[in-house]
Amino acid sequence: MSGISISVVRSNSTDEPMGTKPKFWFKDEDGQRWLFKFARPNTGEDWSEKVAAGVGRMLGVPCAHVELAVCGGRAGSVSRDFLLPGQTLIHGNELLHAADETYPHSKDYRADAHTVCTVLTVLKSVAPPAAALSHPAMPTAADWFLGYLLLDALIGNTDRHHENWAVIETEGKQVLAPSYDHASCLGREVGDPERAARLRGPDRQRTVAGYCEKARSALFAAPGDRRPLSPLRAFESARALRPEAGAQWLRSLRALDRSAIEALIDVIPVKRLSSDGALFAKRVVGLNLDSLLGLA
User: Fold this and answer.
1) Where are the alpha helices (DSSP H) in the chain?
2) What's the CA gap between 291 and 296, in Å, rounded?
3) With CB atoms 3.0 to 4.6 Å apart as the test, which of 9, 12, 86, 107 could cross-link to 111 if both were Cys?
């Protein structure tokens, strides 16, 4: 399955209960399993998921494969199942609860125990993805998770809660799962009037930069904190704990071609993403990229 627009028929499918968006699993003609997610009206959840996965691959972050899709005339996206037979996906909240039974695994986005330090600590004992063979300076899943946080900071992803990262378990061995579920990024939820005002309006307090600065991740600096860290500060905190990995990921960032990222946005059909939406998304990436490069 490839291309920009894919039509699927909901047959031999199973509903996926996790999350808030309507979704279901189905198999294509080759027997490959995919998860279809309907994009809620005026949310941009389809194109943002597609672009985010593409940016992740450019950074060298293992990401779920995503394509735009249509089901019954409704727009959405499909994500290819990255699990093999016999493998189990263990989400972050389950992993953290297994390490500490007091961890609030059933709590929602505002789980203040979901800290950068806690996550990296539990991932130190998890194997890195297969791509780690070419990066001996990043021998653990904790090192690779910095790449996930770097991606979040670059695209402005605000949804890295404890069910939006996971490990894959096979016969007792755990490996970091690819990054997934990045739809809450790139200003996808901002309406065109607001985009126009921030792009071209006279109000200096109402800008794209201001929008970027207000972004919050789902990771905290310490238990008890009232507000989660920004995606930028989450990466910065992780870099302080894993400096060699942080330096490696920043080298990957410096090698990025801005025009290549913009090209990912430009190929989204205009019926899914308006011209102002595309310009806004590019500006978000550009501003976040400058902020990250300023850390080097």
Assistant:
1) 45-59, 92-99, 116-123, 141-155, 192-200, 208-213, 231-241, 243-254, 258-266, 275-293
2) 10
3) 107
Position 1 scores a pLDDT of 43
Residue type, position 211, single letter = Y
Cα–Cα distance for residue pair 207/175, rounded to 1 Å? 41
φ, ψ (nearest 5 deg) of residue 198: -75, -30
Please identify, in words, the CATH class of the domain defined by 83-296. Answer: mainly alpha
CATH of domain 7-80: 3.30.200.120
How much is the pLDDT for 16?
56
* Cα distances (Å, whole numbers) of residue 132 to 129, 139, 155: 6, 7, 23
Close Cβ partners of 133 (under 8 Å, ≥ 6 residues apart): none
| Tens-place pLDDT, residues 89-142 | 999 999 999 999 999 988 777 899 999 999 999 999 999 987 766 677 789 999
According to the model, what pLDDT value does residue 295 have? 87
The DSSP line for 88-110 is: EEEEHHHHHHHH-TTS-TT--TT
Partner residues linked to 33 by β-bridges: 27
Examine domains 7-80 and 83-296 and report if their fold is the same.
no
